[in-house]
User: Fold this.
Amino acid sequence: MAVFNLRAYDDHEEVVFCRDKESGLSAIISIHSTALGPAVGGCRMWEYNSDEGALIDALRLSRGMSYKNALAGLKMGGGKSVIIGNSKTMKSEALFEAFGNFVNNLNGQYYTAEDVGITPNDMAIVNRKTDYVLGLEGKSGDPSPVTAYGVYKGMKAAVKHKHGRDDLEGIKVAVQGVGHVGYYLCEHLKNEGAELFVTDINKESIDRVVQNLGATEIDKDDIYSQDIDIYAPCALGATINDVTLPKLQCSIVAGAANNQLAEDRHGEILKQKGILYAPDYVINAGGIINVSFETGGATYDKQKALDKVDEIYGTLLEIFEAAEKEGKTTNVVADELARRRIAEAK
Assistant:
């Protein structure tokens, strides 16, 4: 596997391959940058089709965390970890303790937290072996509600820029993925009078949001072609691709998923179609902003965290306006701004 030749490799500082035979742990820790501070990013557990697929995901996600933390104004660099395996059948205390040992061996270069397939209880087990864990119960806790709040504020910024409106009353939103973050997002949208169309691979998740929030269920393959205002990808990434782009009928793409564009060029296609794209790592930064208030020895203050998340609104407006003025895509403008902040820190 040629790490340095992969397209996803972006002068990453360090990539650690972790293997513990006894517990069955196979994991990758990717540190993109520590220029702004220690690398911080969640741990994802997923049944990847190949080791290379896991590596590419870790590389892309860790770079995204560098950019996310930079644009959120946090004194943190970017990192990410992936555990290769089925999160429903392969979890064990030994596995997470082994992972904790690998994190601890990095001596604070990388702080981990929960991500897809990982729960706060899993992170509590990791915490037995290392102090370099964020988002634990009793501190900032589950980041999902705060991530959702940030996405909601980001949607409002996108609607303000695209349609000149300050509210979401009657705005039609298609939410792809209504798990933790997606459900909390739907609550915010419902409370402001938005019309919800939802899909998920989990029928129970769909039923919950349909019954509780009056959403309309949409088949997972039909979510892209809905006549709506906002498409909100809130599951896994790369759902903006060559297959889905021709189907999109929305005017805005704004959601919680990481790496929403399968390739950077898809941002240009969105622009050509007149669709405003809220760069994923800007709009979904609420969770990492929340856990950042655990660092530095200060007592966690939820209101201060939410006040900081509110800044996502202004950051996105700045990016939208710069992209329009410079004739660039929003993802390119966001990347340039993030790289500039990281370079200045170096």
Observations:
- The chain has twelve helices and twelve strands.
- The mean pLDDT is 95.
